[in-house]
Amino acid sequence: MKKELWIIIAILMIAATFIFGTTMAYFTGDAPIDDTPFTFGTLNLEATNNSQVGGEWIPVPGDNVKVAEWSFTNTGTKEAYVRATIELQLMNSGEEIQINENSFSWSLMSQDWKEEKDKDSGVTYYYYTEVIEPDETVELKLQLVLNQINGSIMGGEFQVDIEAFAIQTSNHAAYYKWETEIYGRPAQ
Predict the structure, then answer these.
(1) Which positions, given as ranges, span the membrane (predicted)?
(2) CA 175 to CA 116: how far, in whole Å?
(3) CB 60 within 8 A of CB 149
């Protein structure tokens, strides 16, 4: 009797496995899954000098102002914030002449730009305060004013070097990388 009971239990287990296994076949399946691509955007900035400064300039009181203009085009695929910094050098006969910082000043003439001095380095940056979309161009216009005119600048040549930077608009990158609050602060 015990042997027959074990045979019956074994047959019931085999039958249950067969029934459960075939039932599970109705509730399972698989399908091929396509690859999931991740496409990275690009940040590219093209700068153009639009200044009409050609010819000789003899700065005298009343004619001590020049305007410099640049345009920046977002040639990347991502929205960007832009900032620029300017360095002014006076060259005379191939040698740099030291310029007293009080001898000149820059005056921002463009809308949607803001001037901010870096707290650590003291470098002045000009920030475009709006998002620059891909293929969008913005212009920066500054006025150079010579406050002190002396003989050391005569025969010299001003060299205005501009360096522009683009950064993504997402993830508060400008706040963390540039350490500026012009574009807002992340929520704490």
Answers:
(1) 5-27
(2) 13
(3) yes
Comparing CA positions, the residue from 187, 1, 173 lying closest to residue 83 is: 173
For residues 159 and 60, the model is more confident at: 159
pLDDT at residue number 22: 62
CA dist., res. 46 & res. 124, Å (int): 21
Q: What is the pLDDT of residues 144-185, one digit of tens each?
A: 877 765 666 666 677 778 899 999 999 899 999 999 999 988
The SS3 call for residue 75 is: coil
Nearest residue to 136 (alpha-carbon basis) of 80, 182, 83, 178: 80
Task: Annotate 103-115 with DSSP letters as a single string.
Answer: GEEEEE--TTEEE
Whole-number Å distance between alpha carbons of 136 and 169? 15
Say whether pTM exceeds 0.85: no
The mean pLDDT of the chain is 81
- Domains in the chain and their CATH numbers? 45-178 (2.60.40)
Asked if residues 82 and 127 have their Cβ atoms less than 8 Å apart, the reply is yes
Structure tokens at 107: 């005056």
Please state the length of the chain: 188
45: enclosing H helix or E strand: strand 45-49
> Max Cα separation, the chain?
125
SS3 98: coil
User: Of 32, 182, 161, 17, which Cα lies nearest the Cα of 96?
Assistant: 161
